[in-house]
Amino acid sequence: MEIRKIVLIHPGREGRIFGKATAVPYTLMRLASLVPADIEVEVWDENWEYLDNKIRTLGKHDLVGITSKTLAIETAERYARIAHESGVQTVVVGGAHATLLPEDVARWADVVVTGEAYYTWPQIIKDFQNDALKPHYNDTEWADLTGVAPLTDRVIAQVDEKRRYWTPLMEITRGCPRNCSFCTAIRVSGQKMRFRPVEEVVEEIERRRIDRFFLTDDNFGLAFAIDPDYTEKLFLALEKLPLRGWTTQAEMMVAKYPELLKLAKRAHLDKFFIGFESVNPENRRELGGKSKGLMKQYQEAIDAIHAQGLGVVGLFVFGFDADTPKVMWDTWEFAKNSGLDSMSATILTPYPGTPFREQLVQENRLIPGKSWRYYDTAHVTYYPRQMSVEEFEREYDRICRTIYHPFRIAQRGLRALSRHPIPRMPAKVFGSFSTDYGYRRTFAWRHAFSS
Fold it and tell me: Which of 8, 97, 120, 129 fits 28 for a cystine, CB–CB 3.0-4.6 Å?
């Protein structure tokens, strides 16, 4: 079938903040870049604009692709329905939720994509043109990242990320060898860690003309141990770029590599988002080997990273089977006294495909009637073992109101800002306060809709 236009849609819920959307739809930018130059392609982001009426302008010769996380999959389904009502014959759906639970998406999508679409997407376009589409395309081989989906100039120009978005996203590594019981990473990106060529990373940064970014990598810090030579080469290359700063997810083992931390600072890295996950040692089995719930070790790691002039955002999860309300307040006491630059406090969420969800299903502990929009790490979707749902929600509200009180945000932000030389402080103001502000907004979604 002849293609008039390809439209790639990102369902969102955050909307704009002070005139800009939060994070650029990076995956769709890369998929759009794989579309042949003679075919028109557009990236539509719900966080930037209202999409219902735009979707109604589409028709039979338009190919629609949607990528979605679990919390937005019902919006993706609604968009697919609007597209079909408008005459669109093929809606392709991929992303984390489709990979984790393809049978759920197959109920309403014409084509389901599991795994990495960078290899299957070009084939889908050809099959659409040849009237040979299959209902399911899978790519979970986790292939080498060399030369995969480089961004094209037309996509960069169309998305206009500097004007429309606060946070550019980047990918340097993919996959995580850890196997935390609650995490989707190895199921969505594979258990083998893979690396993009340093030259391709630098080329993309320069062509996009971005001077700051957040890495989408599941656990970039593991590169310190898995391939320190690659990590050193990357940092030395980034050092030469006029970057204002960048941030990444990691685990506390990065503290064991002081020389690489020094290079990271020279490479303009601002801070690590470190998954400490829990201060309760009884939860160590669920943490996949990256954390043991030992606060003394956490403090040593924070101090070692701070010693190199780098910030630390602590990521904590509440609701493991050994957790009680006291664990939440113990976490707050640790975070308050540890010097963390910011912290994330989220509710354990039983995502599809994870061992944690399988356990809850076997034990009949999922709360019935909870739609996927509640799977946002801010809602309780299962019956905890050590407390009631009501007690969990009440204490979680209390702890978050404490953590994200404006005074506490200001206190942590000023402390983080003080680590930078005075001439650099104006450039670091946004990063010092924006993380906590973003987590405060995430918490606010607890009360944005009723159950």
Answer: 8
